[in-house]
Design a protein that fits this description.
CATH architecture of one domain: Roll
Distance between the termini: 25 Å
Oligomer: single chain
Largest sheet: 8 strands, antiparallel
Shape: elongated
Number of helices: 2
Radius of gyration: 18 Å
Strand content: 35-45%
Number of strands: 14
Helix content: under 10%
């Protein structure tokens, strides 16, 4: 997901995972505290029912879409429900899939829009210069002089590389290319990143 000089956020991952990297997020990835006491990373979402026998249309946010089944069982964002995942055939924008305990079309359709998450502990360890989208969202953004520019609201990708949506204090937002040149420093421990945006962007 990173071009030359790019950072990546790997795809998975509630992410959509990205490089300077995380989950590549089509819907928006994130992490959630779970009822299990750990972080949950969104790795996919249910797009509705498929057929009449309880299968769902499953969107995967993983770099390798089929990997979503490896991270199961998957949990709902609130940690209240979990599902074993069995992938069926590939369909446009995802898979036909069976979730454990879902036996009817009505039950499958009721899950439409449900985001499915995996515990962070079962996901791959990332290289030093890759980040899960979920870890980038919420970071404070400062310039090279330490002036606060805003906060990362989302990680987007429209096909030309990762973009950070930075929410400014006044309410407006700007898109910041997630490259080494524009974002030279990401400090997760400090909860911030340093941006050196092109002149005129901010």
């Amino acid at each position: 997901m990173s071009g030359e000089g790019g950072l990546s956020a790997p795809l998975f991952g509630c992410a959509e995972f990205t490089p300077r990297g995380y989950l590549k997020s089509k819907e928006g990835a994130g992490f959630f505290g779970s009822a299990m006491g750990g972080d949950l990373i969104c790795v996919g979402a249910v797009a509705g029912a498929f057929g009449v026998r309880g299968e769902v249309r499953l969107k995967s946010f993983c770099a390798e879409p089929g990997d979503i089944a490896r991270y199961g069982p998957l949990w709902t964002e609130d940690g209240a429900r979990r599902f074993g995942v069995t992938l069926g055939k590939a369909i446009p924008n995802g898979f036909a899939a069976r979730l454990s305990g879902i036996e009817t079309r009505e039950a499958a359709e009721a899950l439409r829009g449900t985001r499915l998450c995996a515990p962070r502990a079962v996901l791959p360890t990332l290289p030093d210069d890759e980040f899960y989208h979920a870890d980038l969202v919420g970071l404070e953004v400062v310039d090279t002089g330490g002036t606060r520019l805003g906060r990362v609201a989302a990680v987007l990708n429209h096909g030309a590389g990762d973009l950070l949506e930075v929410q400014r204090a006044g309410g407006a937002s700007v898109l910041l290319p997630f490259t080494r040149a524009v974002v030279p420093t990401v400090d997760l421990a400090a909860g911030r990143l340093v941006a050196d945006p092109p002149e005129g962007l901010l």
